[in-house]
Specification:
By secondary structure, this protein is of the alpha+beta class. It is about 55% helix and about 10% strand. The longest helix has about 30 residues. The termini are far apart. One of its GO terms (molecular function) is oxidoreductase activity, acting on paired donors, with incorporation or reduction of molecular oxygen, reduced flavin or flavoprotein as one donor, and incorporation of one atom of oxygen.
């Protein structure tokens, strides 16, 4: 024993390593005992743990690989099939609790709202989104929501005339020879142009754009930035491992420079008391705050919502409709009965009439159910707490959630649970909404509770208006003969990995 002590004294590095390991073991044992005691006091039973490898490294590498390939929803879906609706996994320095239980989602988003926040997500998204509404907790989030909410109650927010300008450009880009084409990039170009027009006051696709930059370059930089953020958020505490890529950081800088340009214009117009004849979101926001960073951060946060999510939804709608000709024709009948076709319009398209289009709403709901544009959401526990279900042998008891635990909840998988939606849960069936229209926490494509999406109605109006115009212009929608099952890819939002290849034409033309 004395020899060993002498040997360690002669090797201080080895001694330090051994001491560190001993302290880590003692700390883990102490924390485990403490967590067990806390769990019992909260009435929790042990949850299921999935295999994670030494120190959680095995599972971390699996997640990192899925993030890089855009297959996170497929990974999560397979894990739920193996481990059940709520289970835990370890990664280096942290614990993850996966859940697709509506009761848990309701607790996280409403009744236990104060127990949870964005956690690591806020830091990992910060290089692009700063302290905007989707990227902030606490007072910063509350202030941003107070700032933005009034703008979304205004009638001008969903400007149908503005949308029409960009829909005409969209329709002109559709091949006239009945050939197959990928409609997904056209939807992203449309929402990029309409969102920047609505938010900034002019579309980046306009030749008169005072910034001198095009929509294509901006869209590419924005996409590249989001790809980087997706990898950072999957890495959690180890997000620094994916930093340092100059391509990504320069993409963020490009996006910031464009946004800063329009912020300066909005502040100058306020100082000069100049007001546009058309409602411009950024100018309206500048009446309430003159902080350039607050304006930039929130306008970029809104751009993700207005651009990516609506383009994702429209792409999914066209994918499913192209494989369901009966649904497409029934939808056209509803639209033409109300508004006529493009050559013989029979009535003005208004917000009120759009909201009354029942079958159109069913079609959009069903696409949002099967392919929610933000298919995975997450929160972090701000303190030791619990969730209603997930503990015990049957998963029906309360489950303990340790402070710092990250909780991803997959809307993609929850929206496809056969015990909730029936045996046809993975099939596109808009008619289910005639009987399931009162769904609440089983269906949350726009989130819920205090952080429910402010732009929900704007997005639904824009998607509805696009579908009305498509139905008025084209009577035939066909697919490329490929699989009826979409191959979804996820960065921060969902896209179709192989595009959405369709034919759109009018048989009478």
């Amino acid at each position: 024993m004395a020899v060993t002590m002498v040997d360690l004294g002669q090797h201080p590095v080895i001694a330090f390593v051994l001491l560190s390991i001993a302290l880590l073991v003692v700390k883990n044992v102490y924390n485990s005992i403490r967590s067990n005691q806390r769990a019992k006091s909260l009435g929790c039973l042990p949850g299921v743990y999935g295999p994670s490898g030494p120190f959680g490294l095995g599972f971390f590498m699996t997640v990192a690989k899925a993030a890089k390939s855009g297959t996170r929803i497929q990974l999560h879906d397979s894990l739920y099939k193996i481990h059940g609706n709520t289970f835990k996994q370890k990664i280096p320095g942290n614990e993850i609790l996966f859940t697709i239980e509506p009761e848990n989602a309701k607790a996280i988003l409403t009744s236990q709202f104060a127990d949870f926040g964005l956690g690591h997500r806020a830091r990992t998204f910060w290089p692009l989104l700063g302290d905007g509404i989707f990227n902030a907790d606490g007072h910063t989030w509350s202030h941003a929501r107070t700032l933005l909410r009034p703008q979304f109650t205004k009638d001008q927010v969903a400007d149908l005339q503005l949308m029409d300008e960009h829909i005409k450009t969209f329709i002109e880009a559709i091949p006239k020879d009945k050939s197959l084409f990928d409609i997904q990039p056209l939807f992203f170009a449309f929402t990029n142009n309409s969102s920047t027009h609505f938010l900034f006051g002019e579309s980046l696709a306009s030749p008169e754009t005072s910034s001198g930059s095009g929509a294509v370059q901006f869209g590419r930089a924005f996409d590249k930035s989001l790809e980087w953020l997706s990898r950072r958020v999957s890495a959690q505490k180890l997000s620094f491992l994916v930093d340092g890529n100059k391509e990504y950081t320069s993409a963020c800088k490009y996006v910031h420079d464009i946004a800063d340009h329009y912020v300066r214009l909005a502040l100058e117009s306020r100082a000069d008391a100049k007001k546009s004849d058309r409602y411009i979101f950024l100018q309206a926001l500048a009446q309430d705050t003159q902080d350039p960073k607050v304006l930039r951060d929130n306008i970029l946060n809104l751009l993700i919502a207005g651009r990516d999510t609506t383009a994702s939804l429209l792409s999914s709608v066209l994918f499913y409709l192209s494989h369901a000709p009966d649904v497409w024709q029934r939808l056209r009948r509803e639209i033409l009965d109300e508004f006529g076709d493009i050559a013989h319009p029979t009535g003005e398209i208004t917000h009120a009439k759009i909201k009354n289009m029942r079958y159109l709403r069913y079609v959009l709901n069903e696409a949002l159910r099967l392919l929610p544009p933000v298919p995975i959401n997450s929160r972090m526990a701000f303190k030791d707490t619990s969730l209603p279900v997930g503990g015990g042998p049957d998963g029906k008891s309360r489950v303990f959630v340790k402070k710092g635990t990250v909780i991803p909840f997959s809307l993609y998988t929850m929206h496809r649970r056969k015990d909730i939606w029936g045996p046809d849960a993975e099939e596109f069936n808009p008619d289910r909404w005639a009987r399931d229209g009162s769904r609440t926490w089983e269906y949350i494509p726009f989130n819920g509770g205090p952080r429910i999406c402010l732009g929900q109605q704007y997005a639904l109006i824009e998607a509805s208006y696009m579908m009305i115009r498509l139905a008025q212009n084209f009577d035939t929608l066909e697919n490329d003969g490929g699989s009826r099952m979409p191959d979804a890819k996820v960065d921060l939002t969902l896209t179709h990995r192989n595009g959405v290849n369709v034919r759109l034409y009018s048989s009478t033309a």
